[in-house]
Give the backbone structure.
Amino acid sequence: MNGVLIIDKPSGLTSHDVVNRTRRILQQRAVGHLGTLDPLATGVLPLVLGNMTRLAQFYLKSEKTYEGVIRFGFATDTYDADGEPTSEPQEPCITLDQIRELAQNFQGTIEQVPPPFSAKKIDGVPAYKLARKKKEVPLKPVQVEIKQFDILGIEGPKTNFQARVASGTYMRAIAHEMGKLAGCGAHLESLRRTAVAEFKLEDAHTLEELQAATQGREGSIIEAMLVHSRKLLPSLPCVTATDEMASNIRHGRPVNLPEFSRAREVKVFYGQRDLIAISTRVAGTLFHPRIVLV
């Protein structure tokens, strides 16, 4: 089976756990994901199946959208609710206006130190492995982009937010830093990803729904759960190949596309649904298949 499937990841599972469960449910080895979610987090986890795993390279820098809750009053070693408190909890005296003022420090392009419990590597070793052993985790700041960070409200020590960020941004690091600025500590209590690139929460299915769809072995039900291939990579123009063009592309040969002389890359379809290649312009109107999906 080839396609893109959006899973609504439950809390408590790693992204790799979801990939493994999907492999077992579909009895298919070729399954990958388009962007890790922490175990605590829920929401949009796009999975690529079969030949569509070759599309992963196009989603390495995808924008993400989140909603969540930051809990002020104490920090944790993981920067989220799964971690151990690093200080005694306190009742913070902080107002909505003060939190919104703090949030102004996390707008646009900023320097961010990744959490010690993260997959960032230090001399080839994931940081979280060092952190679990209580070893020093000397992570360097990296540049991230926060395109939108809205504080929606406050209830006791908890504040709700919505955020839209570039790839590589850690929302739990933002929560941790806000707690430091507030002087009372803070951590990410919950996080839900509502979008990755063009994939939205309304397109997502639970693992239970996927399992149920396989019970009757009705392939059409599972096919209907996949994202229509015409919706993938919406920034790229589409061309529907003739039989001759499709044959050339399948054999890795370039094709002439005069109507796309200004495009850098195009999606090539055979029929309405079958995405057969992503082709790159090499000269003039000549396009060579960058990746072949059939």
Summary: The two ends are 12 Å apart (CA to CA).
